[in-house]
Structures
1.
Amino acid sequence: MAATVTLNQSMLIDGRVRTWIVHVPATRDHTAMPLLIVLHGARSDAARFEAKTGYDDLADRDHFLVVYPDGFQPAASSTRTWNAGQCCPPASAAGIDDTRFVIALLDRMEHDYPIDTGRVYLVGHSNGAMLAQRLGCEHPQRFAAVASVAGSMTVPRCTAQLPVSMLEIHGSADVFVPLASAQAAIARWRAVDRCNPNADITTTATTVTRSWRCDDGSDVRLMEIIGAEHPWPGQRTPPSANQHTSAVLDASAVTWAC
């Protein structure tokens, strides 16, 4: 069966039409599949992030579903963002309930497709990574693991009652979301997940990865890419002007492998 991409799926949330893209793997049967929810960054959208990340190819290879939601876009604006807490307008300024949207979308996916509910994963970039972390805090029971790329935590309290594995990939030269904010978020996740205080450290010429073992088999990891900037590492489409994509690693492959 050829791979199918279902476009322009939508639902009403708080009186607003919210949209997303679903990619169904080329080879599938009626067995339950993992699901990956992918959240774009500010000023991007589902279609552009689908092209940028290449998760569809991984889905076809490894037999999982991918869903790409669209952030909030006010009328007469070209900017889409997510309300991740203290960031980012216009979604945060308008009080958009993006956690409700993503959880409603997850419910819809589990209704429409054979999803393995024990293998639902969440990944985001930048503002999308901030929302991914918020969702991990507020709905840890729904996700097996969360990956944040160039993100941080923008809610004042993390209320997770269950440990959730967290991976942060961050460039040391990121000026949009500085590395220090990611380090602070990882410190909060280590407290939430009740991690061992001692990190396992793996160093290469271009990366430093710190890993902590935590409650219930969860883990928290911070992968620092030395000299990397804000764009998605290894992205398949050109970055914005005056930005440079790190070729040190493929963030899509790394986040899925984790």
2.
Amino acid sequence: MTIDVLPGDLLLEIFDLYRERVTRRPFGESDWPNWGWTTLAHVCRRWRGIVLASPQRLRLRITCSTVTPVETSLDIWPPLPIAIIYPPSRFISHKFKGEEREENIIAALEHRDRISDIRIFDPEGRSLERWLVAMQEPLPALTYLDLGYSSRRSLILPNAFLGGYAPRLRSVSLSGIAFPTFPKFVLGATHIVTLRLGMPSFQYPSISSEVMATCLAALLDLEILSIGSDLSPLSPIQTTSPSLPPLTRAVFPSLTEFHFVGIGEYLEDFVARIDTPLLNQLRIWLSMDFISGTHQLHQFVGRAQSLRPLNHAQVAFSNFTNTIILGSPARFVLDITWDRPDQLLSSVTQMCNDYFSCLSQVDQLNICHFPEDPGMELGGKNEVDPSQWLELLRPFSAVRTLYVCDELEPLVAAALGELTGERTMEVLPALENLCLDELGPSGSARDAVESFIAARQILGRPIVVQRQNQFHLLIRRWVQ
């Protein structure tokens, strides 16, 4: 049986499965409008009829870009929704420029009632600035908005952007673009499900954490929220004082994912003002300079009961980043960046001991090292004091299984070897399984481990040592 004689409903199922596969590869992005349905429609009249009969299920869009003669495309196909895309492909560079080609986008924007998607990434912003002038009236059918810009010049969305009214908008992504009137705009776009705000530095003072929390509370359907900036604010941010009475927190009833990168003070004040009863994924990027100021973040994690169970933990080191991952699959990810590798271990130790009481619930701990520069050793050129490793392990009082990657085995083994007799119960008192990757048949590391295990055996708390040759593969699968 050839595919051409398959029943129509089965062909439609195949087309839909193909769409899902294409739109989620290679970048994991769903609902990419230019997935090649026009090619299927040109195979034969029967396929064309099946495709055009299911525009909603197959998410049919007429794509318009700088290389698309807009009017010609609109004449060929039925009056389907329009997706404006620049550059014309995720794989094509920004070589399609020029005033004539930019006119294709302007012409597409004239069909306001049919525009469903706008996805523009213009690094310099010059073309985008011109197109924004044509986006100051309502686009009632718009559901997906993605605007990206990477120049250092200020690019600010106008007050009249989209006429301040986008009733069907469900996904918004802004990168490097300021939107000072966003709190007002949200009042006319209350069905947003996914919101990613990559704000430039000057945006932070213009939208305070209090205003941000209040306006986002109006988005009852909001499921995914990302707030970030790579720069420091141009003016100080007023944060919540611990001595003030408890704030009345805004409730985000549908939020399941929250990502933040940027200013620690802003994060602290923001999470102090919100409750997220369904949150099950949290990822935070912070500078090491802010480690001592995460009290509100700690309380926020404690309130987010949907993040649990957090009974698996990973502490991962690279050259200039430390990552703490809780949950399996990962539910809470904290990335800490720093300028000095010699402060790596002390920074994460402080964080673990001072701010996360939930670590006492972890029963499996993985410690690994993924250096970008293989020649750079953990801790820089200075020898790491074994007591620092013991302090890192101390809060994990319920861990029964410990995995250590081969790069860190000598350091962790030396730390455990410092403990003798009853002192071996000071850290990891519940440990039952010690999984090592490349511990050799002899040497100081093995001697230290054997001494530690022998002491535990005498105390009636035996430990089983296992080899884990697939350690790195195991860790990467777990993080994903």
